Amino acid sequence: MNWSLLNIGTNFTNLRYSVGIAMMFNGFPLIFFIRDTLKIGPANSIFTAAFLALGLILMIPRHIFKRLYKPNTILFNLGVGFLVIMFYYFMFINFGGKAIAEIGNFVFIFGFLILLLHIPNDVSETLVTVLFVLSLFANVTLVYSLLTDPNWTPGMRAAVSFSNDGAQPGGNPHITARNGVVCLISGFVLLSNTKGVFTKIFLFFSILFSLGVVVISLAKSSYIGIGLMLTAYFIFHFKVSSIFTGAASLFKFRNLLVLVLIVIGINAFLNKYGDILNLVLGYWDVFQDRIMDVIFTSFGVKLTETADVDYSAMGRVSGFGTFLETAFSWDAFLGRGYKSDYLDVPILESFVAYGIIGFLFFALFNLFLFLFAIREIRRGTSEISTFLAYFFVSLTILLITGGRPTDIAFWFPYAVMIRFLGIRYLNNTVPERQEEISNPVSA
């Protein structure tokens, strides 16, 4: 981690771009904290729109529409293709009405993607640092929100409670979990490139803190997503010889010092706040019970006596029935229309709503994202590409467990991946190629 990247005097432009991107990529935890905990601004979508608009404003370069940078062309063509299909269905095959919020979502998605094409390649390292700092700050604000919320008690899912009338009780724990995952991945990426002893210790405890936030959110998809990331890491980077190499490196003075300080820090924390560990372990037991409920609901297999019906899983099971009904009807060609059915399974809803063509665009887009992510995990060409690769791996579980293909929670990260993931000229091992293509492409 390079702390000098946070120096406004010497790195103002990259910081401005990075803060704008981070506000779009992972801004909802900050929105909820400012709006619902601090009670600043109206508790409705107007405040959200203003926050996102500020993010876009920070991204506006001086060379607007004069200088563009090349994205991943495969992802760009497939992603924009599906967005165009969605917008066409929104305008002409829409039986639910054209809400202002829906129009705003399209404006923000396309505006974000267009501005990303103006962001230079050398923002990579600054962007990961800013994502880490802002997500860590959001984790801290979550703790403050929970401690000041009279309706929250230990054992409940961790989330900022919404203050607007008619909002879902208890807030949105999935936003909490995603922010924890963002902080965890960005901290891990920075830790692998950090040499300073105290910075390493700071990043290590930040990662542990983020993991704790994910645990108390009780978001099953994020648990599984972290498991998928660990699996990918061990498949492509773990070697038996690395065990002996790592063990030998522990005896180096600097590494031994880091280890001793970490152990002392953990021991001091547990001595003073030992109940927190028991609380986290209690959340893990709740997670195991919920997994048993999902298995019972989906397959009818009761692995424990306490297993019961999981109603969110029941909705996905019924959604699969809707998918089969569509597949064996004329709707398979053109779909049923924009947001015609809520399946809570984005990959299946892309077929039900937009037919076989929409499904192919969305499925192929995610397939190539997966392939580029795996390649990046193997090679590690740049900090931002590595971060996005692991983040997409954690996101893949949501394609079959939650959300809609129209959600901005998907498309803001997708837009950043289109711009930075799988871009060969970000490879620092080939400086000639990077220098050649990192020169702006004239519009």
Automatic annotation (TrEMBL):
Swiss-Prot/TrEMBL keywords: Membrane, Transmembrane, Transmembrane helix
The keyword DNA damage belongs to this UniProt entry's keyword annotation: no
Entry keyword annotation includes Ribosomal protein: no
Top-level taxon of the source organism: Bacteria
Coiled coil (residue ranges): none
Residues spanning the signal sequence: none
Record field: transmembrane: 15-34, 46-65, 71-91, 103-120, 126-147, 201-218, 224-244, 256-274, 351-372, 384-402, 408-426
Protein name per the record: O-antigen ligase domain-containing protein
Origin species: Dyadobacter psychrotolerans
